């Protein structure tokens, strides 16, 4: 008897263990069921404050950072109608490309809307080892400017993914590119240059990463530090170009990815008077720091321009609201860029006018200034 009692004594222990495990698991599942995915969570604010939903800019503006991908064949009537609704006087299409495509784009624009669109051209920097470099490219640029091109747009592939014949990464400050930058100065056209990516793309993809959602939705945007030049490296290469070519005007795209560090951007602008910037796709940086951003925009009112990047009529409304109003705690239009709320900067009219069009008129040649005759000032 004693033997069999000993045999049964283990069973309650096993049952207890099993119950404990089940309890723990149920707790886990329960917890999970009550936790929402970050992409799903859309709390509706209960805050009651004044709201100003602007669908049109207070002053006519130039969008200096836009991409239209079918310009040679595009029906521009609809686009111009939308531009009129927004009070966008001039759109700068940075994707002008070159050669026949560029020629046909210009023809299409000039048919009806010659003063409403500006085209920037694009070059293939991977040709820099080809015979005939740089002279062929320089004459392509001269031709393009004769045809009506008003600037050069440089994509982020330069400095990140473009390679030379040896397979080496082409740095923005590669001396083989110097003739290009110098030529832009000579021709009197600005270079709008996008270098790098938001710094957070280099950070670990974890719960502390501000751009975690974007890296989840677009995994290829992650910059593995093992396989990529660092953020600081590519930005330093870009700044070396700015310093080396003081006679050329540069527009550093996307607040030069220093929208989250406006002091640093301010220092760069102080150091390099040939550099301007624009706010395309980085509005959420300004909108989350209304006090600092307002001060920055006022102090650097001669250096910052209106830009949007990807075209979507309704998304401009948020730009107008951040720049013009003093609204509080309102939504941005793209969660992966900003899981935070926006606040209006309430910029003075004189600053708005510089950002909306006066700086663009100064930097980009040949814009029809009569489109900006406003009654204010
Ligand atoms: Zn762009």
UniProtKB/TrEMBL annotation:
Keyword Lyase part of the UniProt annotation: yes
Gene Ontology CC: one annotated term: cytoplasm
Chain ranges of the Amidohydrolase-related domain: 132-363
GO process terms (BP): secondary metabolic process
Keyword set, alphabetical order: Lyase, Membrane, Transmembrane, Transmembrane helix
Positions of transmembrane segments: 7-26
MF annotations from Gene Ontology: carboxy-lyase activity; hydrolase activity
SUPFAM superfamilies per the UniProt record, alphabetical: Metallo-dependent hydrolases
This protein's name: Amidohydrolase family protein
Origin species: Marivirga arenosa
Organism classification: Bacteria, Pseudomonadati, Bacteroidota, Cytophagia, Cytophagales
């Amino acid at each position: 008897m004693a033997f069999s009692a000993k045999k049964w004594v283990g069973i309650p222990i096993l049952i207890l263990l099993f119950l404990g495990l089940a309890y723990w698991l149920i707790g886990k599942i329960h917890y999970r069921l009550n936790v929402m995915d970050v992409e799903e969570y859309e709390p509706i604010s209960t805050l009651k404050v004044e709201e100003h939903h602007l669908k049109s800019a207070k002053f006519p503006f130039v969008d200096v950072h836009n991409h239209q991908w079918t310009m040679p064949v595009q029906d521009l009537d609809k686009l111009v109608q939308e531009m009129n609704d927004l009070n966008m006087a001039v759109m700068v299409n940075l994707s002008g490309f070159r050669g026949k495509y560029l020629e046909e784009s210009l023809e299409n624009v000039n048919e009806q809307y010659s003063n409403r669109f500006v085209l920037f051209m694009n070059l293939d920097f991977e040709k820099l080892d080809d015979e005939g470099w740089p002279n062929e490219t320089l004459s392509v640029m001269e031709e393009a400017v004769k045809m009506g091109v008003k600037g050069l747009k440089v994509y982020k592939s330069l400095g990140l993914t473009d390679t030379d014949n040896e397979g080496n990464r082409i740095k923005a400050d590669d001396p083989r590119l110097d003739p290009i930058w110098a030529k832009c100065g000579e021709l009197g056209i600005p270079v709008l240059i996008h270098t790098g990516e938001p710094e957070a793309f280099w950070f670990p993809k974890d719960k502390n990463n501000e751009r975690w959602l974007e890296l989840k939705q677009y995994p290829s945007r992650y910059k593995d530090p093992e396989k990529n030049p660092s953020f600081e490296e590519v930005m330093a290469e870009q700044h070396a170009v700015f310093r080396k070519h003081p006679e050329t005007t540069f527009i550093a795209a996307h607040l030069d990815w220093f929208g989250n560090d406006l002091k640093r951007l301010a220092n760069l602008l102080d150091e390099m008077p040939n550099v301007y910037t624009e706010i395309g796709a980085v509005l959420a940086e300004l909108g989350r720091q209304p006090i600092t951003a307002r001060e920055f925009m006022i102090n650097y009112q001669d250096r910052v321009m209106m830009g949007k990047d990807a075209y979507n009529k309704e998304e401009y409304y948020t730009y107008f609201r951040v720049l013009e109003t003093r609204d509080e705690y309102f939504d941005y239009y793209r969660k992966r860029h900003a899981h935070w709320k926006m606040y209006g900067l309430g910029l003075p009219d004189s600053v708005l006018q510089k950002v909306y069009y006066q700086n663009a008129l100064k930097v980009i040649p040949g814009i029809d200034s009569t489109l900006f005759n406003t009654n204010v000032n």
